[in-house]
Design a protein that fits this description.
Elements: H1 3-37, H2 42-45, H3 47-70, H4 72-92, H5 96-124, H6 127-158, H7 163-166, H8 168-182, H9 197-220, H10 225-246, H11 261-291, H12 296-303, H13 305-324, H14 326-336, H15 338-346, H16 353-369, H17 372-378, H18 385-419, H19 431-468
């Protein structure tokens, strides 16, 4: 394949990453206004984000396995179309219920595209260029993040929140037509699709029961027998799923891929770091708009500091990763997260906006330097590239869903402790309660960062020990 064709195909796949991230960032900045306008508690408004993320987590491995059999590009292109239709439905919705149905459709399309995105890029580029290519793909996603908060804030300041979803419709149409033109034609790889549907049902039950338990527990309390039952069901389904995958001819996830220590730690640290990042996405819009009383437009512009630095550092991190190894550059990047995490844990409204900007910019530079995708894909053997790509996307989205649930659960816990009663919304007239809940939540985020440092440090130390023998 010519180099020109490689980069055109990279552009086609990266544009979908751009579209999905601009959607996520726009919706996040709109959550406070959705809570007000729809007259629902903060935790119910967050369903617009959480339903999307959880369903993607459910569907990613299914479409990753399916794509290995019928073709990655077919799944990718169809997913782009479905996501676009779902975006139109969100824009036309008039109630929370209708919007959630449209978000389910969006998630279906996003899962199809994201399950194949990384695998397509990995196939296109040789090993010595793979880090750069995946870094460029990540940069496109961060450009979406740059446009999302600012554009979302401007739209919210001048139009109804319905308009924030329409941005994906023209983008989706252009991306599909562009991909249709530049992607090579695929030949179906197998005569008949073989899928572990029973395993998929068990896996879906595990994911759904866990997150339903989390979000329902936020509303009624985690000590309720119903919530504990859901967590036990999730644990049972997880054990059953692992047993099933080891005893079926065509597993949904070939668990042998996790025998590679670098791959397993790459997946785990990706989950943890994306969870850390999503604490910012869910907490800071409320801190800026409700506590500091900035408008949605100004809040969006402030939050652009993180993706702005991420755009610069992602290709740089990818290039350095190609030279010294993605695990090593990612380990160094984790130390850059310490400063912003400490600021988030301690910041007070009286500090002013400059400290927050320093934290957001440093966080963005660190996040771009962390090379999660190359870590995962370079540690997967050739026969596992398809499922590795879907697992990489799953790790990212699972991390965001876990970050959303942890950030809000601990935040509500902190607010409730100060209020002396159970609360699941912003404590109007008691901004101090929110700030203390925010600090507690970021303490959990900091512990996730330390766990990531321990895992990746252990991997590098074990490899150094192996090579020294």
């Amino acid at each position: 394949m010519k180099k020109r064709d490689q980069w055109l195909l990279l552009l086609a796949t990266s544009l979908v990453n751009f579209m999905s991230t601009i959607d996520a960032s726009i919706v996040t900045i709109a959550v406070p206004q959705l809570s007000h306008d729809l007259r629902v508690p903060m935790n119910e408004a967050e369903w617009v984000v959480s339903v999307y993320l959880v369903l993607i987590c459910v569907l990613l491995v299914f479409f990753g396995s399916l794509a290995d059999q019928i073709g990655k590009i077919k799944i990718f292109q169809l997913g782009t179309l479905i996501f676009t239709v779902g975006s139109l439905g969100c824009g036309l919705s008039t109630t929370l219920g209708i919007m959630l149905i449209a978000r389910i459709l969006q998630a279906l399309g996003a899962a199809m595209a994201l399950a194949t995105n990384f695998a397509i890029i990995t196939q296109l580029f040789p090993l010595n260029k793979r880090g750069l290519a995946l870094g460029v793909n990540s940069a496109f996603g961060q450009i979406g993040n740059i446009m999302g908060p600012g554009l979302g804030g401007l739209l919210l300041a001048t139009l109804s929140w319905h308009a924030i979803f329409f941005i994906n419709v023209p983008l989706g149409i252009v991306i599909y037509l562009f991909g249709h033109r530049v992607f090579p034609k695929e030949i179906r790889q197998t005569a008949a699709v073989k899928m572990d549907f029973k395993g998929f049902v068990v896996y879906a039950a595990m994911i759904v029961s866990f997150f339903v338990g989390v979000y329902w527990g936020q509303a009624i309390g985690f000590n309720q027998i119903r919530i504990l039952g859901l967590f036990l069901l999730a644990l049972f389904c997880g054990v059953l799923f692992v047993w099933r995958e080891y005893h079926t001819e065509k597993p949904l996830i070939n668990l042998k891929i996790f025998k590679n220590r670098g791959f397993s730690i790459g997946v785990l640290t990706t989950i943890l770091i994306f969870a850390v990042g999503y604490f910012n996405n869910m907490i800071l819009p409320f801190y800026l708009q409700e506590t500091l009383h900035f408008s949605a437009a100004i809040s969006g512009l402030i939050l652009m500091a993180t993706p702005l630095l991420n755009v610069v550092s992602a290709p740089l991190g990818g290039t350095l990763g190609d030279r010294i190894g993605s695990e090593r550059i990612s380990f160094y990047a984790l130390f850059l997260f310490i400063l912003p995490e400490l600021i988030f844990c301690l910041i007070q409204p009286a500090w002013g906006i400059s400290w927050l900007l320093v934290a957001l910019m440093t966080f963005g530079f660190a996040n771009g330097t962390f090379q999660n995708n190359p870590m995962i894909m370079s540690n997967a053997e050739a026969q596992y590239q398809g499922i590795a790509g879907s697992l990489a996307a799953l790790a990212r989205n699972l991390g965001m869903a876990i970050g959303l649930s942890l950030a809000t659960s601990v935040l509500y816990l902190g607010i409730s402790q100060k209020a002396g009663r159970h609360m699941t919304s912003y404590p109007t007239h008691h901004a101090r309660w929110f700030v203390e809940g925010m600090h507690l939540s970021y303490g959990v985020s900091f512990s996730l960062l330390l766990l990531s440092m321990g895992l990746l440090g252990w991997l590098l130390a074990s490899r150094k020990h192996t090579f020294s023998k």
